Amino acid sequence: MTLIIIKQFLARLFGSRYTWYAIAAGAALYGAAHWHHARVDDAVARTTATLTAEFEAQKKQAIKDETERGLAIVAQTKEDYDAQINTLKNDAARMVDGHRSGSVRLSIPADCTSPIVSGNGSSTQPNTVSVATESRAELSDAAVEFFVGEAERADKQAIQLNALIDVVEHLRTGVR
Questions:
Q1: At what angle do helices 2-15 and 17-101 cross, to 10 degrees?
Q2: Do 127 and 115 form a contact (C-beta atoms < 8 A)?
Q3: Quick one: which of 141, 148, 143 has its CA closest to 92?
Q4: I need a labelling partner for 66 at 20 to 30 A (CA). Which of 4, 12, 49, 143 fits?
């Protein structure tokens, strides 16, 4: 009996045209939704690919621009460095040449004490009072070359260090 009731129910249910309309409408909605999601997923994939490509191009351009800016800073700093080194070398050569020609005399203070001389020309005993006098000792050509060379080397290292500091600071702040 139950089986007969189920058969009759299904016959009435599927025998009605409204049931078929409902099934057709459901299938159409399901297909439309599936088609819409496929289109949206496709559009999202295309947009993501386009945005990713644009971002990568912008990133490459930014890296290229930053590299060019850094190279320009380094080139300018090298020009400044070379100019300072040339000035330093010229000043050192001018100092040594001036000393050799006699137009520049380099000397160092010499601390010497001289005994007090009495009016009769005899000096006082070594344990007695003596007067310090300002004396200077002139440097030899070899000493001048040595000291000027050492000063030039130290100045060169200071200039190199300052040039490196300038490059790092310019790259860090982005200001030139």
A1: 70
A2: no
A3: 148
A4: 49
